[in-house]
Specification:
Strand content: 5-15%
CATH superfamily of the largest domain: Type I PLP-dependent aspartate aminotransferase-like (Major domain)
Strand order of the largest sheet: 1-9-8-7-4-2-3
Shape: globular
Largest sheet: 7 strands, mixed
Helix content: 25-40%
Number of strands: 12
Order of helices and strands: HHEHEHEEEEEEEHHHHEEHEH
CATH architecture of the largest domain: 3-Layer(aba) Sandwich
Low-confidence stretches: 167-174
CATH class of the largest domain: Alpha Beta
Radius of gyration: 21 Å
Mean pLDDT: 95
Distance between the termini: 12 Å
CATH topology of the largest domain: Aspartate Aminotransferase, domain 2
Number of domains: 2
Amino acid sequence: MTKQPTTPFAIPAEMLPGDGRFGCGPSKVRDAQLDALARDGRRLMGTSHRQAPVKKLVGSVRTGLRELFSLPDGWEVVLGNGGSTVFWDVATFGLIREHSQHLVFGEFSQKFADAVAAAPHLADPTVVACEPGAHPEVQASDADALCLTHNETSTGVAMQLTRPGNSGSRRDAATDALVIVDATSAAGGLAWSPGEVDVYYFAPQKSFASDGGLWIACCSPRAIARIESIAASGRWTPASLDLKIALDNSRADQTYNTPAIATLFLLDQQVQWMLQQGGLQWCAQRTAESAAIIYDWAERSPFASSFVRKPEHRSNVVATIDLDGVAANDVNAILRHNGIVDTDGYRKLGRNQLRVGMFPAVEPRDVAALTACIDYVVERLRS
């Protein structure tokens, strides 16, 4: 490994990407969104979320997401304050009847399983785990909720969403478990079918190029029935985590507590942009183009390789790239000095690794420029 350089050096300006934001936490926000916020959003900031202008904004978000995901009749888009971390607690109260199964293959899928294990009113969850870099498969069980992760942000592993018991497009009637999917870094960037899922939940700071502090859950009629059934059972639930309260408020195009208006505004701007470009199909094609660029580069590179070994498990929105013979921290420091930011590997994974966000707002040509800049930096660090 190289030593930390004492003096960062410049990458030629003509090599740099047009935008150097490749983060997998907060992600790139398009300039057009921010311009619209400054121009039109200012009329909404500091106003009541119970009044028509903000309710219209929430309604636009719900309608736009319904169109983007081609949600069938009977599905509902539910919103609440807090991110996906909060929704794990929401699900323990409002979606899991008694027993859940969790596929664990990274930091965030593990955290949901841990949240359920700590809930005193639920049975211990069944955890099906594998080492980071791949994903496990659903196991036969009596679970009433199957908790999956579409894209594990910490490791760059994506999984195909398939309802257990499905035969073609028809569901096995004996399969009663709800399929609950954490889609925080996948939603808006990876394709999925509502026929395979009951709850598809996410926060808006990844593909939707917004801020955090909000959770959104697309819920099937089966999920709505579960929410209403649990609410009617008398199970005690804190009001801020009550999914039935969130559902009732969402139907009125509002959230239970005061939301962050800027978050909603940026989210709506991104959804409308996605629809104008061609919808989810366009978004998925765009992220696939970026992914092909970085994975092909890693395959050819003498010092880089894809952490996720199986191509079918590799994410199109989060690429994790191992480095050999050069310290990732050194590479990241030089990139940041040149305005290319947030390419650091996930801290708890603890690998000599880069992690690159390739959400729809990221231009594929900027991903190509990033790979050229990495080559330039590594050549000089190793010389």
